[in-house]
Each structure stands twice: as structure tokens, then as C-alpha cells.
């Protein structure tokens, strides 16, 4: 890779790994969160679902906005949102605050994730983009694979708040490096279709919310069944 491409990969790869890790790291901390914040199963479900909902809904709109107004600019904004929301989640005094912080985290992650790929692709020569895409996929897969492992280790040897505190120093370093290491880029010079973007966002909201609520309802029905109760006992 060229020096600029390598610097771009360092920033975007670490950012992608952080977001992918955070998507699953909270899973093993749910019992500790339940005990500490005195919440029920619905609160725990929304601790996960709030992130999934905003992340899934805002992925495409965030990429469209970044193409018009600057990918590096939106990437840095997404990093700032994600980092601050991680600190808010760690400091959450109750389940409502934690769910709200997780929703904001998901929004930040939705901005970061697609831009890691577009920024990297813009910095890499066309002949090397296959290698860059493979490296990008590796960072994403590594974050997903290590999420439950890191979450389990953190909750075993520290408190659940540290699964969110881990993001803060990483995000702070990336916020310093991104303006220096990344080159600004944009997509095709077209006017942003506000009505189309709003309709797309609303449609995605309906689809993702339906999937989230359907999964939650199915899970509650399974837990309330006599067979599940007998197995759990």
C-alpha cells in the first residue's frame, strides 16, 4: 500500500473494528447490567435493540449524506458521536439512559461503518482495491468474532461499564488522527434528494423495527413456554 493508503487503513480499520466489536460486546454483560440497574428482560432487550435499530436505519442515509458533504467530515462527526455516546453509556445511572446512549451509539456506528470502506477505496489504487477490501472484511470479522470474548473477559475481571469505557480512548485517538491521516473525498456531484432520503429512512425504520419487535416477541414467547421453563429449571 502507498503511505496515504496505509494511514487510511490504520484509521478506518481500527474504527471499523471498534464498531463491530461494540455490536456484540454487550451480550455477555447483560446479566451484570440487569443486576446493577435493576431492570427486567425488556430493558435488556432494548439495550441491544436500540443499537441495532438506529444502526440499521441510518446506514444508507449516512452514506448518501457523506457523499455530498464530505466523507472525512462525516466520519469524524460519527466518531465523535460514537465516543461521547460510549462515555454516556458507561456513566448511565439507569436503564433508560443506557438505552438512549446505545441508540446514539448505533447512529454513530451507522455513520462510521460505510465510510470506512469508501474512504479506504478512495485512498487505494484501483489495482489494489481487492486487497484493501479483504483487509477491511478481516477487521470487521475480527471485531464480530472477538465481541463476545472481550465482553466476557471484561465483565469477569472488571465492571460492565468498562465495555463502553474501552471505546473512549480509542475514539479519542482516532479523532486526533483522522483529520491528519484521511483525505477528504466526495461522491458524484448531485443534489441530495431530501424527500427520497426521508422515505428511505422511514421504510428502513419500519423494516428494522418489525424485525426487532418480531425477534423480541418470539423470544418472550419461547421463554414463557412450559418446555423452556422446565429446561431452565
Mind explaining what this structure looks like?
With 233 residues, this protein is mainly α. Helix content is 84%, strand content 0%. It has ten helices and no strands. The longest helix has 31 residues. It is globular, with a radius of gyration of 19 Å. The N and C termini lie far apart (56 Å). The C terminus is likely disordered.
The parts where pLDDT drops under 50 for at least 5 residues are 218-223, 227-233
- Structural class from helices and strands? mainly alpha
- End-to-end gap: 56 Å
How many strands, which pairing sense, and closed or not: the largest β-sheet?
none
Strand content: under 5%
- Count every helix, treating DSSP H or I runs of 4 or more residues as helices: 10
Instruction: Tell me the series of helices and strands, N- to C-terminal.
Output: HHHHHHHHHH
Tell me the radius of gyration.
19 Å
Number of strand segments: 0
Indicate the mean pLDDT: 82
Q: How does the overall form come out from the CA principal axes?
A: globular
In percent, how helical is the residue content? over 70%
Provide tags for this entry.
mainly alpha; 233 residues; 0% strand; disordered C terminus; globular
Helices and strands, with pairings:
Elements: H1 3-25, H2 30-37, H3 41-69, H4 71-90, H5 95-123, H6 129-157, H7 162-165, H8 167-181, H9 194-224, H10 226-232
Amino acid at each position: 500500500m502507498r503511505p496515504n493508503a496505509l494511514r487510511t487503513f490504520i484509521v478506518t480499520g481500527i474504527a471499523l473494528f471498534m464498531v463491530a466489536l461494540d455490536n456484540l460486546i454487550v451480550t455477555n454483560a447483560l446479566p451484570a447490567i440487569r443486576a446493577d440497574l435493576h431492570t427486567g428482560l425488556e430493558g435488556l432487550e432494548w439495550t441491544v435493540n436500540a443499537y441495532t435499530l438506529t444502526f440499521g436505519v441510518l446506514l444508507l442515509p449516512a452514506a448518501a449524506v457523506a457523499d455530498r458533504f464530505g466523507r472525512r467530515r462525516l466520519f469524524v462527526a460519527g466518531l465523535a458521536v460514537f465516543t461521547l455516546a460510549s462515555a454516556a453509556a458507561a456513566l448511565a445511572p439507569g436503564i433508560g439512559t443506557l438505552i438512549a446512549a446505545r441508540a446514539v451509539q448505533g447512529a454513530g456506528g451507522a455513520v462510521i461503518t460505510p465510510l470506512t470502506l469508501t474512504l479506504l477505496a478512495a485512498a487505494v489504487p484501483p489495482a489494489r482495491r481487492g486487497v484493501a477490501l479483504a483487509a477491511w472484511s478481516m477487521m470487521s470479522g475480527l471485531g464480530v468474532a472477538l465481541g463476545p470474548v472481550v465482553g466476557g473477559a471484561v465483565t469477569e475481571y472488571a465492571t460492565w461499564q468498562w465495555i463502553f469505557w474501552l471505546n473512549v480512548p480509542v475514539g479519542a485517538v482516532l479523532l486526533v488522527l483522522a483529520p491528519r491521516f484521511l483525505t477528504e473525498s466526495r461522491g458524484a456531484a448531485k443534489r441530495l434528494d431530501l424527500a427520497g432520503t426521508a422515505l428511505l429512512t422511514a421504510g428502513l425504520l419500519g423494516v428494522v423495527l418489525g424485525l426487532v419487535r418480531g425477534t423480541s416477541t418470539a423470544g418472550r414467547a419461547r421463554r414463557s413456554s412450559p418446555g423452556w421453563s422446565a429446561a431452565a429449571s
